[in-house]
Amino acid sequence: MDLDRGKPVWPQLADELRRRIDAGTYAPGSRFPAVVDLATEFDVAASTVQKAVASLRTEGRLRTVLGQGSFVVDQEA
């Protein structure tokens, strides 16, 4: 994925993560990748990934369990 560094990066990242969730790359109920892993993959700061993850959580696509991580929410349920 090529990020347009001339625009805010976190919404672009959120779009890509949303696409992956919709495509089934991250299956419902599965643990979502860690912030540090996604930051490394996309070559962005962890805070950028945190903003993208927070937006997906607000949309109801992810749920976070303290001490366990984030999990993909089953949109069918």
TrEMBL record:
Pfam families: GntR. It comes from the Bacteria. Keywords: DNA-binding, Transcription, Transcription regulation. Gene3D superfamilies: Winged helix-like DNA-binding domain superfamily/Winged helix DNA-binding domain. Residues 7-75 form the HTH gntR-type domain. This is Winged helix-turn-helix domain-containing protein.
